[in-house]
Amino acid sequence: MKFSLLKKTRHLIEGAFVGMAFVLFRYILPFKVCVAFLGWLSRTVGSRLRLSNRARSNLKKCFPNISETEIQRIIAEMWDNFGRLMGEYVKAHAFWNGKTLHNIEIVGIENLKRFQEDGQPGIIFTAHLGNWQMITLAAQSIGFDLAQMYRPPNNPWVDALMLKCQKFTVKNVITKGNGGPKEFLSLIKRGDHALLLVDQKMGEGIPVPFLGRDAMTATGIAKMYLNQHCPLLPARSERLHGSHFRVTFYPPIEFEAKGDRRQDMYGLLLHINTILSEWVKERPGQWLWLHRRWNDT
Question: Which of 32, 76, 231, 265 is positioned for an S-S bond with 122, CB 3.0–4.6 A?
Answer without folding.
Answer: 231
